[in-house]
Amino acid sequence: MSRGLSRWWPRGLQARLSVLLVLLVLAVSGGYVLLLARSTEKYLAEDLQKNNRLLAASVAEVLQIDEATNEIPQPALRRTFDAAMTINPSIKLYLVGLDGRILTSSAAPREVKLTRIPMAPVQAFLAGRQPLPIFGADPRNPAVARPFSVVQLHTRAGQPHCYLYITLGGGAAGDEVASLRQSYILSTLLRTLAVAAAVVLVVGLLLIPLLTRSLRRLQAAVRGLQAGDYTTRVRGIGAGDELGELAATFNDMAARTEQAMHTLQSNDRLRRELVANISHDLRTPLASIEGYTETILLRQHLLTDAERQQYLQTILHNTRSLKRLVSELFELSKLEARQTVPRPEPFSVTELVQDVVLKLAPEARTRAISLEARWEGAVPFVCADVGLIERVLQNLLDNALRYTPAGGAVQVLVAAPDERHRVPLLVRDTGRGIASHDLPHVFDRFYRSDQVREKTKDGLGLGLAIARKIILLHEDDLTVSSTEGSGTCFTFSLPVYAPGDEVLR
Questions:
Q1: What is the average pLDDT score of the chain?
Q2: Would you state the pLDDT for residue 311?
Q3: In this structure, CATH architecture of domain 242-334
Q4: Residue of 284, 287, 399, 441 with fewest CB within 10 Å of its CB?
Q5: pLDDT single digits (tens) 333-345
Q6: What is the DSSP code string of 60-96?
Q7: What is the protein's major site of localization (predicted)?
């Protein structure tokens, strides 16, 4: 758009639509008026030519061609022309040769501007196959085509002699009648058009704000989202059209943006908690290692062998805790980055469970906890990464043993395959359970409830997060159910091995 046009062109969509509507109505009205004018002229010309179609033939009846000269006597021709023009002053009569040359006319010689007229309209009129009106040349005014009447004159021997060519509507009376008719018709149609255009403009200008109301709502919602209000939504726009689809798309985008912002805020909070927890879990063993090491170095001549051995055992325990923390952090990061790819293979899940239970049996006896594995009937082979599943079972059982008091029980149950062709595994304990407000966070990294932190300092809060990541890699989820004071149960499932399954080595 040019600069000159952009100066007065409105900026608002509603104003632009209003201006466009006015311009469109004016353009359509102007085109309609022009079409009416041309149609009226054509209709009047058709009516005039149709009513005077036989005029030339009736005039030709009084004309007699002289047998001796083979011409029409000029006095008789002049009398006939004068009589015809007296009856109808709007006509002009011409004798035209077979080649279109004008032989004589009722007009004065100085008024005739043409010496020859085109014969194609004459032939079309005489043939009668072309619809009226047919316009021919006006010898007095070559720039204006007029309706006409024509007839061919013959000699007494029947030979074509010339044409009697009569132009219609060229006189003052004819023009006045046509002007009056045209004025009446156009005035009526123009009044009708003015009323219709006014109605269209009023209705259109009233409807435009209603149509743009949805856009204004969408604009307000976009501005709200831009200002940081991620809860803003577009309401009041029905579905079924482009605006409704646009509003639904915006609402979906806003919902995704809000969810993404919540996720970012949650991740930021978790990041801060992660840094704080890592700092805490690293600081405690490092401070212990530093303190005992300094004690050994500064008081090495004063320490007994038993004290030195105790200090070294404490240093070794803290070193192993640090090693375990670093190892679990590395393992969790690999799982979250999907750098760890499961290598499924068929194996007996009951044998794996039995091996893990036997491995942890000494610790269970030390804690005075009953640890057992149970299954009923023959359990089919499963297809999974045996190393990763062993890590899941070890983490779950280690977590159960840690938070189950002496005299309690921990059980691993291998159930029969379900309708999904998966083998469910349940790890139950009779510990103190998990509080309802802590239950949604048990799989979060470094998460430990305040009660757990008071009871133990061994847990680093990564075992359950690692276990769940591993189960997610096996296309299932690790779920938990717990009742405070009654114990906790972790559940997951493994796919049943079929002979046709692909095994990765």
A1: 80
A2: 83
A3: Orthogonal Bundle (1.10)
A4: 287
A5: 666 666 667 888 9
A6: HTT----TTTSS--HHHHHHHHHHHHHH-TT-EEEEE
A7: membrane
Measured between alpha carbons, how far is 186 from 43 in angstroms, rounded to an integer? 13
Length of the chain: 505
What are the pLDDT digits (tens) for 81-101?
888 888 888 888 888 888 889
Return the H-helix or E-strand segment holding 411: strand 409-414
145-161 tens-digit pLDDT:
889 999 988 887 778 88
pLDDT at 429: 93
> pTM of this prediction?
0.45
> Rounded to whole angstroms, how far apart are CA atoms 95 and 76?
13
DSSP state letter for 12: S
Reply yes or no on domain 53-167 having CATH 2.60.40.
no
Whether the link from the prior residue into 133 is cis, omega within 30° of 0, is: yes
Cα–Cα distance measured from residue 13 to residue 352, given in angstroms and rounded to the nearest whole number: 71
The tokens describing 212, both together, are 């743009």
How many CA atoms, within 13 angstroms, populate the side-chain half-sphere of residue 433?
10
Pull the structure tokens for residue 496: 């049943």
Decide: 471 and 392 in contact? Cβ < 8 Å: yes
Domain boundaries, the chain: 53-167, 242-334, 345-495
Asked if 204 and 44 touch (Cβ cutoff 8 Å), the reply is: no
Q: What value, to the nearest 5°, has the Cα angle with vertex 446 and ends 441 and 447?
A: 30
In the beta sheet, which residues pair with residue 428?
411, 489
Q: Using DSSP bridges, classify how beta strands 487-495 and 422-429 pair: parallel, antiparallel or unpaired.
A: antiparallel
Question: Which is nearest to 392 in space by CA: 406, 412, 377?
Answer: 412
Domain 345-495 superfamily per CATH: Histidine kinase-like ATPase, C-terminal domain (3.30.565.10)
Six token digits for residue 124:
């079309």
Six token digits for residue 3? 């600069």
Q: What is the DSSP letter of 466?
A: H
Q: Are strands 409-414 and 370-375 parallel, antiparallel or unpaired?
A: parallel
Q: Which residues contact 362 (CB under 8 A, 6 or more apart)?
A: none
Residues 6+ apart with CB under 8 A from 354: 373
Which residue from 78, 145, 90, 77 is spatially nearest to 117, judged by alpha carbons? 145
For residues 357 and 295, give the distance between their C-alpha atoms in angstroms, rounded to a whole number: 40
pLDDT tens digits, one per residue of 368-399: 999 999 988 888 999 998 988 998 998 899 88
Is residue 415 helix, strand or coil? coil
CA angle (210, 214, 217) in 5-degree steps: 125
Whether the CB-CB separation of 356 and 394 falls below 8 Å is answered with: yes
Residue 366 amino acid letter: T
